[in-house]
Fold:
Amino acid sequence: MAFPARVVFATRNDHKIRELTRICADWPIEWIDLRDLEPGAAPEVDETGQTYLDNALLKAHAIADALGVPAIADDSGIEVDALGGRPGPRSARFAGEGASDAENRQALLSALKGVPGGGRTARYRCVAALAFPGEITALHESGVCEGSLASAPRGAAGFGYDPIFVPAGWEETMAELTDEQKDRISHRGRAFRALRDAVAVG
Structure:
């Protein structure tokens, strides 16, 4: 499959768009930013799916069909072994609907109170999907970054759970890494590079 000429990022999340712009910089594509469109041009898509893939597909298909342009979307979350894999797809709402990143981090740290360092293993997981207008199927790939959770936030970069997530093989949290370091090992970087390769050979 040839790369489409234009693709829209199916998100309005400033942090995510900055990250995707870096990760997808080598895609031979003109990227469309939803934030540049007229209000109401594209729908707000609720993440009502039960899985990362469900949510990624919901967003990608809704935006592609509304705009008549291929759309790329992802859903991601953190999975904590001591919590049976939670919060998973509900990571952005772990402390409740509309919770801030800081509130979600604090809720997760509170849930792990008393859990020793060796029992704080976790992973970031991401599913990225590319949908085309009017088509039922979509390309999708996933990426995982294994690690563990610190006992307190460290670092000012990144977003979400980055200040408490320590990638495997590193002493720093994700929020203490440079953009280049993070993108190379992150779940989102791995998912979107796999998707790029799938498009290139598809």
